[in-house]
Design goal:
This protein is an alpha/beta fold. It is about 45% helix and about 10% strand. A ten-stranded mixed β-sheet has the order 6-5-14-13-12-7-11-10-8-9, sandwiched between helices. It has a four-stranded antiparallel β-sheet with strand order 1-2-4-3. A two-stranded antiparallel sheet has the order 15-16. The protein starts with a helix and ends in a 5-residue tail after the last strand.
């Protein structure tokens, strides 16, 4: 019974039964030692058996000959070396010869055993030598294959070097000596490292001829040859793009890994398909792009990178109904957490859509910066730095201002006050970790006239989208040569320059609303909290920024317009004396009333002429208060499209700031051309006033004109 139990237990355990001896792998191949041992023991066993049974000795020799022939054929099939094939065939024949002799003379004599041992040692030694030779032969074959590939690549590089040496000589009049050619891993081009000739030639001379070099090389549209400084002033790096990656649209990467202000924030990709990062710890940024160039999409891409950062908070100012930041706030405001789920945080930390809210934000930012200068002196002294150490505990504040450059150059009194505070932030708070990202509609002198904007915006972006008018690249990239607007004729494409990389072509990623919601959800636990020193300095305007009364406009049908005052609903229009109701009856009214009572009591005769002549037309302004109410009073509102009345009411509710045509178009769900025509008709009738202020032109109700 014990034997059966042990057998069952062994069968159940299978291969897991521990063994005390070595584990034999019968499927493994033989090495030099085991192969020689197997051959000699096999020959001894066969010879002993054959001698005992009287087997004819010739059979062993026939078997050995067949084995030698079989291994020879197999060796040719496996492409073994000649010495390997000869060694294996000889081993078979020697073993077969010894077996034949041992069967005839007896295998158990000392002569037979000694000779068999010598044969085993010889077979093992020869097998080892044969194995080493085969390994060396295989490595040499692989090395030869690699050398062939390198020779092919080297030939291609030599061809490129010779071709571009001649081209640079022909176009630029400079004879360079190519040191190396590096093919880009993305397969979209290559880089040439070359020595400049003696005599004072610089890389700028080649950079200035970039368009001519591209034309001479017959590069596709959107591909360029861009020269930059080399490892020293006597060398030049020429980047040549052969595949136009700007033509295709690439979505924002789905990799939402954490970022840091110190390690760079990706804003797009170069023509070599590699990401380009910006470092904004001490820099401000400027993004220029006309309507339709993809500027709004890039702003969302910038906010996406900021949302992924663990040591950064984003404040957004957008006076166009807050459209730039709403997409990053509404997913959190509309989020209904389940039981045990944490409330989602907005992708940005503060949003201002009106001048009043923007003033509150800028005042708070200035107080934060000044308080940080005082409160963190000991920390900066301890770390021996004059820059505030930015981290998750003391986050950097990035102030993103949509169309901020236009605010800085506006002549409006309200916007001038905002501009003054924005310039203070740019000028004073660099060391305290508060920087700005401004956007503009055009690269013109009127928009970029402020020297501080150009000087502090070390990171500059110009999105062209094929637009030529108002795209003076020299205003944004002074000194840069070879930049042509026509090279970036695709939406989202343009030029970017940073202190780390010279101005060159790039393209931003396409980011869609559903991806914005995904980023807000993925980064909700990553946003840092503002440090206690800054929260105290900012005051209640910061801590109550998400209160219901402050964000009620975000869910309103007419955002940023605010409630209509009761007085305005009751009596819209100018506060004219013609429409006022006197509190006390005038002397003329009392006299007329007294005469009516006398006539009724004493039955006096009527006056010679009771009809009064028509009053002459009043001189002065053609006021709607003095017009016929039934004919002209309603004409200004009713004549025109059906949506005009609602638009006029919205413009009146907007107050002195008025509304842009784009905002009215979004409100009434009409295209801008139709809306402009209808509003212009209202202006001609006096129902509205058009305030021309360039990109900030608005329509204002006469009550606030």
């Amino acid at each position: 019974m014990s034997t059966d139990t042990t057998t069952k237990t062994t069968e159940q355990r299978g291969a897991q039964v521990p063994t005390s001896g070595p584990a034999w792998d019968w499927a493994a191949g033989h090495g030099p030692v085991t192969g020689a041992l197997s051959s000699t023991t096999g020959a001894l066993a066969l010879a002993t058996t054959g001698a005992a049974t009287g087997m004819p000795p010739g059979w062993a020799l026939a078997v050995g000959t067949a084995g030698a022939i079989g291994h020879t054929v197999a060796g040719f099939r496996w492409c073994n070396a000649g010495r390997t094939i000869a060694t294996r065939a000889a081993s078979w024949l020697v073993g077969a010869g010894w077996t034949t002799w041992a069967i005839s003379s007896g295998p158990l004599s000392w002569a037979a055993l000694g000779s068999l041992a010598a044969i085993g040692v010889g077979i093992g030694t020869t097998a080892r030598s044969m194995g080493l030779y085969e390994e060396a032969r295989e490595e040499e074959a692989l090395a030869a294959e690699r050398r062939a590939v390198l020779m092919e690549l080297s030939a291609e590089r030599r061809k490129i070097a010779a071709e571009w040496t001649d081209r640079i000589q022909r176009v630029c009049g400079i004879t360079v000596r190519v040191k190396g050619v590096e093919m880009w891993k993305t397969g979209t081009g290559f880089s040439i490292d070359a020595y400049l000739p003696e005599g004072g030639a610089t890389w700028e001379r080649i950079a200035a001829e970039g368009p001519r070099l591209s034309a001479d090389a017959r590069l596709p549209h959107g591909c360029t040859a861009t020269a930059g400084p080399g490892i020293d002033q006597g060398r030049v790096i020429l980047d040549v793009t052969t595949v136009n990656v700007l033509k295709e649209t690439r979505n924002y990467p789905n990799d939402y890994t954490p970022l840091s202000i110190h390690t760079g924030i990706p804003w797009g990709y170069r023509t070599n398909a590699e990401e380009i990062c910006v470092y904004l710890r001490e820099q401000c940024a400027l993004v220029v792009g006309p309507t339709g160039s993809g500027k709004t999409n890039m702003v969302h891409g910038i906010l996406a990178g900021f949302a992924r950062a663990t040591d950064l908070l984003t404040f957004v100012i957008d006076l166009n109904a807050g459209s730039a930041g709403l997409s990053w706030v509404l997913p959190a405001l509309n989020h209904q957490p389940e039981q045990g789920e944490r409330k989602m945080r907005p992708g940005i930390d503060w949003l201002a859509s009106t001048p009043e809210e923007a003033n509150l934000m800028l005042d708070a930012v200035l107080r934060i910066g000044l308080q940080r200068k005082v409160s963190y002196q000991d920390l900066m002294a301890k770390q021996n730095t004059d820059l505030l150490p930015i981290s998750a505990k003391i986050p950097q504040i990035m102030l993103v201002i949509d169309e901020g450059a236009e605010i800085l150059t506006s002549t409006d009194r309200t916007l001038k006050e905002l501009a003054k505070k924005i310039l203070e932030v740019i000028r004073m708070l660099r060391a305290m970790g508060i920087r700005t990202v401004l956007t503009a509609l055009g690269a013109t002198s009127s928009v970029l006239g402020n020297l501080m904007i150009r000087r502090e915006a070390k990171t500059s972006v110009v999105l062209t989208g094929g637009e030529v008018e108002g795209m003076d690249l020299s205003k944004v990239f002074p000194g840069a040569r070879g930049l042509k607007v026509t090279q970036a004729s695709y939406k989202g494409a343009g030029f970017m320059g940073t202190p780390e990389s010279p101005a060159g072509l790039f393209k931003t990623w396409r980011i869609l609303p559903n991806q914005i919601r995904d980023i807000v959800a993925a980064t909700t636990d990553r946003h840092p909290e503002l440090d206690a020193v800054s929260v105290k300095a900012a005051g209640p305007v910061y801590t109550t920024r998400w209160d219901a009364d402050r964000i009620a406009w975000m869910n309103s049908a007419t955002p940023a317009l605010g409630p209509v005052p009761v007085e305005r609903e009751q009596a819209a229009g100018l506060n004219l004396s013609a429409l006022r109701k006197p509190d006390v009856e005038s002397e003329e009214d009392l006299t007329a009333k007294f005469r009516q009572e006398i006539d009724a009591y004493f039955a006096t005769a009527p006056e010679p002429s009771s009809e009064q002549p028509p009053a002459p037309a009043p001189k002065g302004l053609n006021l709607s208060a003095l017009r016929n109410e039934n004919s002209e009073g309603e004409q200004g509102r009713e004549s025109g499209p059906d949506w005009l009345a609602a638009a006029i009411d919205a413009i009146a509710a907007a107050g002195p700031t008025g509304l842009k045509p784009s905002a009215v178009a979004d409100l009434v769900c009409k295209d801008r051309k139709t809306v402009r025509a209808g509003l212009q008709g209202a202006v001609d009738r006096g129902a509205l006033v058009y305030r021309d202020n360039g990109p900030h032109s608005v329509y204002v109700h006469p009550d606030h004109a």
